[in-house]
Amino acid sequence: MSEVVAPTLSTYQDDSTFSYDKYKSEHKKRPYLNLNSNDKQELISAIIDYYSLNELVAHLEANPQFDKITLQFPDELISDSSYIVEYLQSKIKERQFWVLADTSYSSCCIDEVAAEHVQANYLIHFGDACLNEVEKLQCCYVFGKPKLDLNKLIEQFKKKFDKGDNVVIMSDAPHVHLLSTIKEKLPEYKNLVIADFTAPNSSKIIGFTPSEQLYIKFNRSLSIQTTSEYDLFHITIPESPRLLQLVTQFNNLTTYDPKTNELSSGPYPNLMKRYRSVYIARTAGTIGILINTLSLNNTKKLINIIQKRIKDAGKKSYLFVVGKPNVAKLANFESIDIWCVLGCDHEGIIIDQVNEFFKPIITPYELLLGLSDELQWSGKWITDYKSVIAEYENEVREEEEEQDDDDDESQPPEFDPVTGRYISTSRPLRNMNLTITNTAENSNENALVERFSNTLTIKNTVSTSAQHLQNRHWTGLGSDYQNDEDSEGALVEEGIKGIARDYHPDI
After folding, report:
1. How many angstroms from the chain centroid is the CA of residue 284?
2. What is the pLDDT of residue 439?
3. Which of the following CATH numbers is that of domain 150-264: 2.30.36.70, 3.40.1010.20, 3.20.20.150, 3.40.50.11850?
4. Residue 440: what pLDDT?
5. Do the domains 271-401 and 150-264 match in fold?
6. pTM metric for this prediction
7. Average pLDDT of the chain to the nearest whole number
8. What is the CA 461 to chain-centroid distance, rounded?
9. pLDDT above 70 covers what percent of the chain?
């Protein structure tokens, strides 16, 4: 009797079908490893040295309580993950390892959401990192140790700065281990300061020992407290949120690109455009709170502060969690007047320089600034959660000292300097002394949306949804028949049937 074979449920596919999907990881370019050949043993040896895997193994052996371990990689380093997992499994027995890629939000942040899917109790983050404190998951960081041609870098540095200049040297996380060496090669620069790392609480940095310095700023440790009189020399080009943060804190900013050995002094994101968005937040009636992180510490506390501040200002707010935000996702919510994004200050804040998004996107600090009683901006730009919360608490104390009993209804409409108009719907949650009723009864009891949109107040508050529906030029299918006496639609009839190439009309 012949063997029973399961039926084929799909079209036959041979190896040629997947020829474009095959990928040989041995031949992938890895400029950060400085390989001289495609030899596999040389590649493995370079990976072990680059990521300090022997030190990582010793760290894991000293902590046997971590038995479910996740390894988080950014896109540019994911090709090394298989070699790293194979090496760790060969050295550490009876441990479970998972590889995390395509992070839920910013790749520089700890992805607690993905780690919870496998109930991991430890996470190892590879590559560049922001070092922001996470909510609950224990973790460690492996930056890697890329190499640079320091002679070329120092040559460019000397062309840009004089010996008496005040300069701070900063870099992304992987290049921090080179800063001390660079400073030693520039002994004639007496006012040279390096921005070292300080590890977050209960976290360890593999392959790097942070130095003890006095002041903590921008998740870096510095020997100076004030940076406004210093120029910044940054190795690598930061993302736009980080770039704008540094521009507002230093006298001048120069970036160095290790790939091209070129310096750049701008243009950088414009702070005046942010000032315009603050005024839009002041006159907005509906504010969308966009969550671009679920792991950073104090996220829930900041959300509660923002929601309370929006409600106290008489405005409406809605909370959105849409994964990684993009233009198409946010365009679905056209009734939102402005977005407030909560995310990492390195990559999680959206800086829309080309007006790609339909509505402005601001930070929590800018929103709280716009909702304050008196809009006064000194030019500083705050993104870290602790500083934003501290600023809000200081403002609350000042408002309690100068609190008045004026009713919100007595306040005049808000003037919008962006459009030059007065906005009367900027505080939709204010109490209405005037009750507005709809005297014209609608004969069509099923027209719920139409009856809802004809009323501007619901339970003594202004309905932003109704106002939005009234301002729309097109109200949907069938709206052109709303004044006709015959409100019944057409009868359902049987149409043509068959496949697309051979319809059978009913003759």
Report:
1. 22
2. 43
3. 3.40.50.11850
4. 45
5. yes
6. 0.76
7. 79
8. 33
9. 74
